[in-house]
Design brief:
The longest helix has 27 residues. The chain has 247 residues and is an all-alpha fold. It is 69% helix and 0% strand. The protein is globular, with a radius of gyration of 20 Å. The chain has one domain.
C-alpha cells in the first residue's frame, strides 16, 4: 500500500480531533476550539432537540431551548470547564442539555436567544419528521437523545462513505452494495448486482468487503472526534449499537 493510500484508509490521530481541540481551548487556542464546537453542534443538534422535545410539550419552546442551549455553548467566554476529565462529548452534551432544560423550566423563559451564533439554520421541520415515531412512545428524554445521537453518527458516516464513492466514479457500485453493509449478504442479490455491473461474483464480494472495511474505518474516525482515547472509541461503538438494538 502506498503512503497516500494508507493515509486515506487510516482515521486521523486523536491529537487533531474536534473534541481535543475544544478541550485545549483554555491553553490559548480558543478560535479553533470554537470552530470545532460549532461543527459538532451543527452535526449533533438533533439529539439535543429530541431531548428538549420530551422536556416540554410546546414545540416552539423546545426549538427556543435548543437554539438557546447551542448558543450558550458557542457564546460562552471560556472553555475552561471542558477538560479531558469531563469525558466524551456525547456525555458532556447530554449532561449540559439536562442542566439547561432544568434551568429553563425553573425560569419559564421562552425568549429566543443565540442570534449571533454562526450555525446554519436548523431544520426543525425535518427534525419533527425524524422524531415523530419516537415521540409517540413513552421513551425518556435521555433515551431519545441517545437514539438520535446514534442515528446522527451513522448518518454522517454513511454520507461520508457515499461521497467518497461518488467522487471516485464508483456510484453504481456503492448504490448496488450499500444495502448489504450490515448483516449477512444475500448471495442471490449480490449475484444480480454483479451481473448488472458486469463484474464477477468474486469481484462483487471483494468490493463488498472493501466497502464494509472502509465504513468501519470512517465510523471509528467519526467517533474519535468526540472521544479522548481509542478505548473510548471501542466503548462508544458498543454503546451505539446497544442503543439501537433496544426498543
Amino acid at each position: 500500500m502506498t503512503s497516500s493510500a494508507a493515509s486515506h484508509a487510516r482515521p486521523r490521530r486523536f491529537a487533531t480531533t474536534r473534541w481535543s481541540l475544544i478541550q485545549q481551548a483554555n491553553q490559548g487556542n480558543e478560535a479553533p476550539a470554537r470552530a470545532a464546537l460549532e461543527e459538532l453542534c451543527q452535526a449533533y443538534w438533533l439529539p439535543v432537540y429530541a431531548f428538549m422535545r420530551r422536556q416540554t410539550r410546546d414545540v416552539h419552546e423546545a426549538q427556543d431551548w435548543t437554539q438557546g442551549f447551542l448558543a450558550s455553548l458557542l457564546l460562552r467566554d471560556s472553555f475552561a470547564q471542558l477538560s479531558p476529565e469531563r469525558g466524551r462529548f456525547r456525555s458532556f452534551l447530554l449532561a449540559a442539555a439536562r442542566n439547561f432544560s432544568s434551568n429553563e423550566r425553573d425560569k419559564k423563559n421562552a425568549v429566543v436567544r443565540g442570534g449571533q451564533i454562526v450555525l446554519q439554520s436548523l431544520d426543525y421541520e425535518h427534525g419533527e419528521q425524524r422524531l415523530a415515531r419516537e415521540l409517540a412512545t413513552p421513551a425518556t428524554a435521555e433515551s431519545l437523545f441517545e437514539r438520535q445521537w446514534a442515528h446522527a453518527v451513522l448518518d454522517r458516516v454513511l454520507q461520508q462513505l457515499r461521497e467518497e464513492y461518488y467522487s471516485t466514479e464508483r456510484r453504481a457500485l456503492f448504490d448496488a452494495l450499500v444495502g448489504h453493509l450490515g448483516g449477512v449478504a444475500n448471495e442471490g442479490s449480490l449475484t444480480v448486482s454483479a451481473e448488472t455491473l458486469q463484474i464477477s461474483p468474486e469481484a462483487i464480494r471483494v468490493s463488498l468487503h472493501r466497502l464494509r472495511k472502509r465504513y468501519r474505518a470512517l465510523l471509528r474516525n467519526e467517533i474519535s472526534q468526540t472521544t479522548n482515547t481509542p478505548a473510548e472509541v471501542d466503548d462508544e461503538i458498543r454503546h451505539l449499537f446497544l442503543t439501537l438494538a433496544q426498543n
